[in-house]
Design brief:
Elements (H helix, E strand, L loop, with lengths): L1 H5 L18 E5 L2 E5 L14 E4 L2 E4 L1 E6 L5 E7 L6 E6 L3 E2 L5 E2 L4 E9 L3 E10 L5 E10 L3 E2 H4 L9 E6 L3 E7 L5 E8 L5 E2 L3 E8 L4 E9 L10 H14 L7 E4 L2 H17 E4 L2 E4 L11 H11 L4 H13 L19 E2 L3 H5 L6 E2 L5 H16 L2 H22 L42 E2 H20 L3 H22 E2 L4 E2 L2 E2 L13 H7 L4 H11 L32 H13 L3 H17 L31 H4 L1 H10 L1 E4 L4 E5 L9 E9 L2 E9 L5 E9 L3 E5 L1
Parallel strand pairs: 30-34
Antiparallel strand pairs: 1-2, 2-3, 3-4, 4-13, 5-12, 6-7, 7-10, 8-9, 10-11, 11-19, 12-18, 14-15, 15-16, 16-19, 17-18, 20-31, 21-22, 23-24, 25-28, 26-27, 29-30, 31-32, 32-33
Helix pairs in contact: 5-6, 5-8, 5-17, 6-8, 8-9, 8-10, 9-10, 10-11, 10-12, 12-14, 14-15, 14-17, 15-17
């Protein structure tokens, strides 16, 4: 029982309701998102995280449609292919009147269409009477707003809350909450028709439906205090059209394969990334995931941008510009901030504003800063965007200074982390749960902790920064950074390599003792290229052994380790983004067969989950014939870096790199699994030149590359 109490903090998500027992429907736009049940409603009890949220607060906790006093029968519910809207088809149940007559089920068709746009939730309810006589009926909307902070929804108990109140109009009701942070939040409901009854929790409408005639009613829940325009059918249509246009795929490479299921996975992933991406003042930014992380996360945004860089470099530019604007400029122990450090996460909710959680702007991650430099260098290589690189260079230098001045806590040449206040994150790598860094016997590692992947990120960051410096003519700075990277490589190989285990230590603890466990983290080491080829080969064998590879992907922790639990968050689960990075690392060292195994496993997993939408993570049980992966109860679905995984996996399989100086498209030992006999890449663009390329897998397993069309000068090379 002590372990349960220990890990019940603000970084922990309580699984108090069976989320996976029923399908949920998800929308997200800007700073708003909705998690609805399959009826398009949010239940008053047992709904867990269901609700409609805005800026970190659940602004509608109950939103339920009824026909008469009953819930209509569900026919179907669907999410628009680009995630623009939800459509719910319903009909009446058998309804007995007071005089004994029965209205048979299927007499009235109900179509409810819902979407989010610019801080408001829109709903259109259409009823069509298919009976031969006029039908009198009643419809109602039941609603409530608990104004729970997302951390309350996750399970935190607060000592005090603000005050709720309401304002009633003829066709509107405003539910208001005066928070402890001095901010008033609202859910203002407006109706296109005048209700027969309207109070603080429901609106009732008495209808008389002519035979074979449709009836339409609109309502809107507004979360901002700007005066909204009148709610009309024309407004509804224009808002919906604007949203659909906003969610169109970016002007980027189009991927078409010979496998329709793989195409569906690509399309769903692309649509989810578009939905999760918010257009911030400094550019597009992929919010991490719904429901728990629908906000700016540094690490998540950076890794997502790296995953899709070859397809859509514009996302990387937005991520870099946003994080540069948020780069820490002073020491602030409350926020784990130091000059030059890159943001971990930013929250807008009441608990962040009051300091009940430290996340209004929180910098508690050891890896976001080197990842920022890595992405800047990769973006420059991919695009040749010198103007933006010049803008970024001072931020890169500040990040490098943080690595050298603050990142190395104890002066041993490695970047470590230790939180500055008890309320901060204990672990500050991507595996940031409190029990994620352990020794072989299960003992938790004490800090300051140096993670293996963080050292690899620093190595890649310094090499990348050296290339930027060289390009801009800063020769001495470039030489200095290359020397620092080489020194780090030698130290890393000496301190982290575990010869008897054939892999790298997960971490060094505060006493410089290696965490001698088989974990997925060394896959990130391979991604950064810090390993020797011989050790990379042995590490690949470890990663793909039965202890780590479940058949559905690489587990976060080996099955023989003391803390292994396939149902844990980071101690044996499987994360799609982690597997994508591992596959890219294996590709760096020519392990093409293993890349295909991971790609095939992730593709198979996508076939078993709803909408072919890979979740944040799933459980690490071994694959059984005829069964799908075991789902994790509180995983974010969708999650940005899970959505981006398919693009990095495909890039790793194709050995694909795009370079602006000189303009070239390179396929290094391309391979494809049997499920993908053909892949076409339309609109591969480098430095203004474009190529359409077809790759074909032959029965021998060899892959050939054909250039179908080319505009402008770009070299296409194949390395075998």
């Amino acid at each position: 029982m002590s372990d349960i109490i220990r890990f019940k903090g603000h970084a922990y998500v309580l699984a108090t309701s069976p989320r996976l027992a029923t399908r949920t429907l998800t929308l997200k736009e800007g700073d708003s998102f909705a998690v609805l049940d399959r009826y398009g409603d949010t239940a008053p009890i047992g709904g867990g995280e269901q609700g409609i949220y805005h800026k970190g607060t659940r602004v509608l906790s109950h939103h339920e449609f009824r026909l008469g006093r009953q819930r209509p029968l569900l026919l179907s519910s669907t999410v628009h292919e680009r995630n623009a809207l939800i459509a719910v088809d319903q009909t009446n149940p058998d309804i007995e009147s007071e005089d004994g007559d029965i209205l048979p089920r299927g007499s009235i068709h109900i179509l409810r269409t819902m979407f989010l746009y610019q801080g408001a939730f829109y709903c259109r309810t259409c009823l069509h009477n298919y009976a031969d006589q006029r039908l009198d009926c009643e419809i109602s909307l039941i609603f409530d707003a608990d104004f729970a902070d997302v951390f309350e929804v996750r399970g935190m108990i607060r000592q005090a809350r603000g005050q709720r109140r309401a304002e009633l109009g003829e066709r509107s009701v405003a539910l208001l909450y005066d928070g402890l942070d001095g901010v008033t939040r609202q859910a203002r409901l407006d109706f296109s028709e005048t209700p027969q009854e309207l109070d603080m929790s429901s609106a009732r409408f008495a209808l008389s439906l002519a035979p074979r005639q449709p009836f339409q009613m609109l309502h809107r829940a507004s979360f901002e205090f700007d005066q909204p325009p009148s709610l009309t059918a024309a407004l509804f249509e224009s808002r919906q059209a604007a949203l659909v246009a906003q969610l169109q795929a970016p002007d980027a490479c189009r991927i078409v394969t010979a496998n329709d299921q793989f195409n569906h996975w690509l399309a769903r992933s692309s649509a989810d990334l578009a939905m999760l991406t918010s257009h911030l003042p400094d550019g597009p930014y992929p919010y991490a995931g719904v429901p728990w992380f629908s906000t700016v996360f540094g690490r998540d945004g950076l890794i997502t941008a790296l995953e899709v860089l070859w397809v859509d470099p514009g996302l990387a530019k937005g991520v870099l510009a946003t994080l540069a604007a948020c780069q820490a400029v002073a020491e602030d122990p409350v926020r784990d901030a130091e000059p030059g450090k890159i943001l971990h996460e930013s929250r807008q909710g009441e608990m962040a504003n009051t300091g009940e959680v430290p996340y209004s702007r929180y910098y508690g991650s050891a890896d976001a800063t080197p990842l920022f430099i890595m992405l800047a260098a990769a973006y420059g290589e991919r695009t040749g965007d010198d103007d933006f690189l010049r803008f970024l260079w001072p931020h890169v230098e500040r990040a490098l200074d943080w690595i050298d001045r603050y990142g190395d806590v104890d002066g041993d040449g490695f970047v470590e982390y230790t939180r500055k206040r008890p309320q901060g994150l204990v672990n500050q790598g991507w595996k940031d749960s409190e029990d994620s860094i352990s020794h072989a016997d299960g003992r938790l590692a004490g800090g300051p902790i140096a993670l293996c992947e963080v050292q690899a990120y620093v190595y890649a960051a310094k090499r990348g920064a050296a290339q930027i410096a060289k390009h801009f003519g800063f020769k001495e700075r470039s030489r200095q950074l290359e020397e620092q990277a080489e020194t780090l490589r030698k130290r890393f190989e000496a301190a982290f390599w575990l010869n008897d285990l054939g892999t790298y230590a997960l971490a060094l603890d505060g006493h410089k003792r290696p965490c001698r466990v088989h974990s997925s983290n060394p896959g990130h080491v391979l991604y950064c290229g810090i390993s020797s080829h011989e050790r990379a080969k042995r590490t690949a064998h470890s990663l793909m052994s039965e202890e780590l590879f479940s058949g559905w992907g690489v587990r976060t922790l080996g099955a023989a380790e003391g803390r292994f639990n396939p149902m844990s968050y980071h101690n044996g689960s499987i994360w799609p983004h982690d597997n994508a990075v591992i596959a890219a690392g294996l590709a760096n060292y020519g392990q093409t067969d293993q890349v295909q195994r991971i790609l095939a496993a992730m593709f198979d997993a996508a076939q078993f989950v709803d909408l072919q939408r890979l979740p944040e993570l799933f459980c690490g049980f071994s694959r059984q014939s005829g069964q799908g992966p075991t789902l994790y109860p509180v995983a974010c679905i969708p999650q940005a870096w899970a959505s981006g995984a398919v693009f990095m996996l495909l890039q790793a399989s194709l050995g694909l790199s795009l370079q602006a100086r000189p303009a070239s498209i390179v396929f290094d030992r391309p391979c494809l699994p049997p499920s993908l006999p053909q892949v076409e890449l339309h609109g591969l663009t480098v430095s203004g030149a474009t190529a359409n390329v077809r790759l074909i897998r032959h029965p021998s397993g060899n892959v050939t590359v054909d250039v179908m069309e080319r505009h402008g000068y770009v070299e296409v090379r194949v390395l075998m």
